[in-house]
Amino acid sequence: MTSTPDTAMVRDMVRIRKVEEVLADYYRDEQQMRTPTHFSIGQEATSVGVCAALRRTDPVYTGHRSHAPYLAKGGDLRGLVDELHGRETGCAKGRGGSIHLVDHAVGFAGSAAILGEMIPVAAGAAWAFALTGAPRVATTFFGDGATEEGVFAETMNFAAVHRLPALFVCENNTYSISSPLAQRQAAGFGIAARAAAHGVHAVSVDGNDVFAVRAAATAAVDRARAGEGPVLLELHTYRWREHVGPGWDHDHGYRTREEIDSWIERCPIRRAADALRPAHPDIDDLVAAWSAEYTAEAHDAVRLAKAAPWPDVADLTRGAYGPAA
Ligand SMILES: Cc1ncc(C[n+]2csc(CCOP(=O)(O)OP(=O)(O)O)c2C)c(N)n1
User: Fold this and answer.
1) Over the Cα atoms of the chain, what is R_g?
2) Does some domain include residue 325?
C-alpha cells in the first residue's frame, strides 16, 4: 500500500510512542539517563496533528513535555537520545537534558522547564515575523497548568492587540502534576474561553483525534499566516504515565486506574487506525511493521548514545549564558 498523508500521521504517532516506551524502559531499568523526563505517551495526536500543519520554517517552542513535539517537528532522534544521556553529541551538547531540546535545522526552536516561559518567547518570534512581513507562524505547546501563570494572560492580550501570527497550543490533560483542573480553575469556563476573553480566536478540539487536530491546526495556521491574528487551540488529551518519569501512577492517590484505562481506550493511535481501516484495510499490518521498525530504531539510538563522548569538564560552562560554541 502506498503511504498517504493520513497513514503518515499514524506512522508518526507510532514512532513517538515506540521511542518513548523504549526510553521509559531503559530509564527505569538502567538509570543512565540522569535527567527528569516527562513522557507524552497517550498524547501523541496533539504534536503530530499540529506539526503536520506547519512548515519547516515555522518555529516551535515547548515546555517540559517536549520529546513528542520535537520528534513530530522532525527533530533528530540521535540528538534527543544523546541529550538524554548527557553526551556532547546531544542536541544541547549534553548540558540541557530532556527539558532543553532544540533542533534549529527543522524549526524546533527550543524548550524550557519554567511553566509558561515559552509562551511570550513564541509571541516575540511572531512579533518579529509581523514586523518584518515574514510569512511565518510561531507555535508554542504548553499544558493546562501553564495557563495559570500570569504571563499566559499577558501574552494573550499582547498577541491579540498586535494580531500576531502565533499558534498557542494548550495540551489540556487535566492535571498539573497531581492537581486536577477542577481544583485549580473555575468550573464551566475553559481555557479556550479565557483566551477568547482577551480577543484571541480560540478553538476547543478533541486532542486524541489526530485528524481533528490537524484540521484545526491547518485552519489556525492559515489564519495566522494571512495576518488575521493569533489562535489558541485547546486540545483535550490525557497523559498515561506519571507526571515525570517512566512509571505508572494509578497508586499515587490522585487518579484511579479506571480513569487511566478509560483514556487508554481512547488511544489516539488506535482511534486513527480505526478511522482509516475502511479505506486502508492493511492499516493494522502497517502499525505492527512500524512498531517493530521504530522499536529497533530506538534501541539502536540508545546503544549509540551510550558509546557517544561525554562533554569535556573544561567546557562545562561554555554555552551556559550564550550559544554553545
Ligand atoms: C513557574 C513554575 N512553577 C512550577 C513548576 C513546577 N512544575 C513543573 S511541571 C508542573 C505542572 C505542569 O502542568 P501542565 O502545565 O498542565 O503540563 P503537563 O505536565 O500536564 O504536561 C509544575 C507545577 C515549574 N516548572 N515552573
Assistant:
1) 19
2) no
* CA 135 – ligand 1 centroid, Å: 32
Percentage of the chain with pLDDT > 70? 98
- Is the distance from the beta carbon of residue 46 to the nearest atom of ligand 1 less than 6 Å? no
CA distance 248 to 240: 7
- Give me the chain's average pLDDT, please: 96
CB contact at 8 A, 118 and 110: yes
**Contact (Cβ atoms closer than 8 angstroms) between residue 130 and residue 229:** no
DSSP 125: H
User: What SS3 string covers 58-100?
Assistant: CCEEECCCCHHHHHHCCCCHHHHHHHHCCCCCCCCCCCCCCCC
Over range 264-271, report the average pLDDT: 98
Which of 266, 7, 253, 224 shows the shortest CA–CA distance to 122?
224
Judge if the beta carbon of residue 176 lies within 6 A of ligand 1: yes
168 in a structural domain = yes
Mean pLDDT, range 282-305, rounded to an integer: 98
Domain interval for residue 160: 5-309
Please state which of the ranges 1-10, 94-103, 275-284 shows the lowest mean pLDDT: 1-10
Q: Check residue 214 and give its pLDDT.
A: 98
**What band does 325 get if pLDDT is binned at 50, 70 and 90?**
low
- Judge whether 323 lies within some domain: no
What pTM was computed for the model? Answer: 0.97
Domain count, the chain: 1
Helix (H) / strand (E) element for 263: namely helix 257-264
CATH no. for residue 233? 3.40.50.970
CA of 36 to the centre of ligand 1 (A): 13
Q: Is the CB of 173 under 6 A from ligand 1?
A: yes
